[in-house]
Amino acid sequence: MPTKSKRLLLALDGSERSLQTVRYAGEEQAFKGMRIVLLHVFNAIPEAYYDLEKEPKSVKVVRQVRSWEVNQKKVIREYMENARQMLIEAGHAETALDIKIRDRKKGIARDIITEAQKGYDAVLIRRRGATALKNVVVGSVTNKLMEKLNFIPILVAGKKPVNKKILVAVDGSPCATRAVRFVADTIGHLKDYQVRLMVVVRGGSDGISLNGQSLSTDHIFKEATGILTAAGFPKENISAKAVTGAISRAGAIVTHAEKGHWGTIVVGRRGLSRVKDFFMGRVSNKVVHAGRLDTVWIVT
Predict the structure, then answer these.
(1) Which residues of 151-174 are buried (b: 16+ CB within 10 A; e: fewer)?
(2) What mean pLDDT, rounded, does the chain reach?
(3) What is the pLDDT of residues 168-180, one digit of tens each?
(4) UspA domain spans which residues (predicted)?
């Protein structure tokens, strides 16, 4: 088991689609032993609306709205308890699971971020929520979280089944190194997982330039492997893949994941190209959008 009990914030919106995220959390062995907080931000009726109750013509309507809100809160409480029970049945300790239902204050995404600042190690979310449009890959709340939640990893659950195969994109950058450390801390104690380290180089070079220094792919792989093995992960379960001459780094990563049936893709939020005008790295952003069915862990 991990030496430190990690805390995972699982954001749920009350939809059936969101319950798929709960199933993922239950199936992912890496989350066993973590403390998981199930959070729902409730869209309560603004208090100002109830001021209308002072108007005789509005009394009936306001009372109907009050009744609707009470009923919706009951539905959400039952939904969250059901989600908690799903995790218990999947093998999570009952004492390690908590439910938080919070009235919306600043907005759903911002309220999730506020909660995430309270000592969590990662946030687990779904690509799309209850009001998802068919052709939209990432929903509005998830998109806002990917943009603004930049202090802990964001785990974006996909539709692929959990298969204990993790593809980690590395490029020698500090953020990519933190991504490897997060994987090491999360699965280092698990001996039946497979990890593939992947370097993608655009053009014909066989190395990467970092702060004016050229790093060979062998150096990058050796450093990442050392981090994983130091956490107890078996060296024989680590493989490496270098791709050169790629047109798109994100495209190469997603294609490799598809062909190799890698269930989870791990990327650093920002790689070597630190462009301030982008809310997150171009590669990590493209991986989330291109890998429509993939689970993607984005590490800051």
Answers:
(1) ebbbbbbbebebebbbbbbbbbbe
(2) 85
(3) 999 988 999 999 9
(4) 6-150, 164-290
CATH architecture observed for domain 165-299 = 3-Layer(aba) Sandwich (3.40)
Q: What is the mean pLDDT of residues 59-81?
A: 82
Over residues 257-262, the mean pLDDT reads 96
Hey, what are 276's tokens?
């301030």
**Adjacency order of strands within the sheet including 194-202:** 97-103, 35-42, 7-11, 122-126, 154-157, 295-299, 264-268, 165-169, 194-202, 238-246
Question: What would the two tokens of residue 177 be?
Answer: 């190194």
Q: CA-CA distance, 225 to 114, in Å (whole number)? A: 35
Give the range among 17-26, 49-58, 149-158, 189-198 with minimum mean pLDDT.
49-58
| Angstrom distance (rounded) from CA 154 to CA 296 | 8
Within the chain, all domains assigned CATH 3.40.50.620 are found at: 7-157, 165-299
pLDDT greater than 80 at residue 293: yes
Over range 240-263, report the average pLDDT. Answer: 93
Q: Which letter, b or e, does each residue of 86-118 get, where b requires 16 or more Cβ atoms within 10 Å of its Cβ?
A: bbeebebeeebbebebeeeeeebbbbbbebbee
